[in-house]
Write a structure and sequence with these properties.
With 86 residues, the protein is mostly helical. It has three helices and two strands.
Length: 86
């Protein structure tokens, strides 16, 4: 759930924290594929995405090693779990 605070801020709570995290990883992969820019130093977003696929989504599916293919498969997995992303 997204709550609005009295001073106009927003707060993600409950099960939506995991959804936000999954979408954040999808956007980070997308950024790396489109621009070559990295979201974090020393951490492969493909490995982070694989970790979330296994631990959060409960899937045993392995992501491809290339960023573009991993983004495609990761996005499809999110859509299959009812999480809409571009």
């Amino acid at each position: 759930m997204i709550e609005t605070t009295q001073n106009g801020g927003y707060m993600v709570t409950g099960e939506h924290i995991q959804v936000f995290d999954l979408l954040r990883i999808q956007k980070a992969l997308s950024l790396e594929v489109r621009t070559g820019m990295k979201m974090s130093r020393g951490v492969s977003m493909v490995k982070v995405a694989q970790d979330r696929v296994t631990n959060v989504l409960g899937s045993k599916k392995k992501l491809p090693r290339t960023k573009a293919k991993a983004l495609e498969v990761y996005t499809k997995l999110l859509n299959d779990h009812g999480i809409e992303c571009e």
